[in-house]
Amino acid sequence: MGYAAAVNYLYGLQKHGIKLGLDNTISLLSLLDNPQNYFQSIHIAGTNGKGSTSAIIASILQAAGFRTGLFTSPHLVSFTERIRVNNEQITESDVVSLAEEIRFKIQDSRFKMTPTFFELVTAMGFLYFKRKNIDWAVVETGMGGRLDATNVLLPEASVITSIGYDHREFLGNTLSAIAEEKAGIIKNRVPVITSAQEPSVMDVIKKKADEKESRLFVYGRDFSAAVKAEDTSGSVFNYNGGSNIEDLAISLPGRHQVLNASLALKTIEIVSKKSSHHALRITYHAIRNGLENIKWHGRLEFVSKEPPILIDGAHNPSAAEILAASLKEIFLRAYRRIILIIGVMSDKDIRGIMAPLLPLAAEIILTAPACERAASPQKLADCAAEMGFTNTHIAPTVKDAIDMAIKSSNASCVKRDALQEKSLDSSLITHHSSLILITGSFYTIGEAKEMLCGRGILSGLRETV
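Given the sequence above, the corresponding structure tokens read:
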């Protein structure tokens, strides 16, 4: 088929959008000799935090000496971010060759199917993991859980992170309905680890766990964590679970990452005790090493130091609230003012995303990534005005927004330097200058990161609705 044809095939699958259901994935994997049966797995669903939790679990397993696959979505800059082994991304040539191989198998088979983009990517990931002889795969659902293409796994543990409102057009309009879909990853007698949830959500998870005779471990009841120190580079915390570990350091900032880390640690504890295929021994050294060396893109990630530019993929109201809390707890102690760049998809809860963030910004720049689903900057401005915020600027593109923010940040630095010269005691000025924060959508921050950090690989390969 060749490189160009394989890439065009992948891009062409996007037009099929999102289709929930397992039939295609089951048929597709059967053509590939069911690669998902050749490694142990941990399956993770949720609305917020599932990517970070997946990355933390994978980092600890890798630090313990296990060959570890990580499957996540979406990507920010490069498609190859989605499929990793021991934190090394799949190569572009492997992406193309796997796509070519799977396409030919479909054409030659008796199955008449046209897989969606995510179904094909899931099959690619599992086949790649099999051929790389991994011990463990840490797999994040794409959306939902019950009918998500990844739900063909029979994992050693199921993890459910915080559940909130998102993808209502697919998952339902109530938290209970959304929880029903997420809890669909719970399998018979497979232990479940979950963060603290809203009562209606917890009721659904408990009911599903009981039906499946699966033991349930709940944050705050069966395990917990306490933050001891935090700054813009991460946190130090104590973990209390089956074993208590003090003074753990995680290199991801924000208290929510301590929660994600505790979910990861409890999961590691549980699979260590129940694993039968491998002698899974995780030392304290591996835990500390895995936490200290974790890197996860797009969540409170600095993509520039001068000027300081932070990106965060807060694309729903609960994620925006978590981001706002981190700004108050950490970043507003270190920076004098925040210049907010925000671009949101039109099918999202725009008001819910902006409400926690706009009051924290000294300056607001409204923009749109190059995506058909993006809300126009004017629509964002109108919504902000309805909420009482008129200190807004419109930038037609993400690049324009970044240029505008840098110009404002530089002007702020000049004013600050002048103030320091006049001050008799410059130590009284404890804050840095402006922090530029880019958020609102993974499309927005992905486009920004590509501009600031270099071009990506097959960066346009995203799911479309």
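The longest strand covers residues 224-231. Try to locate this feature in the token string yourself.
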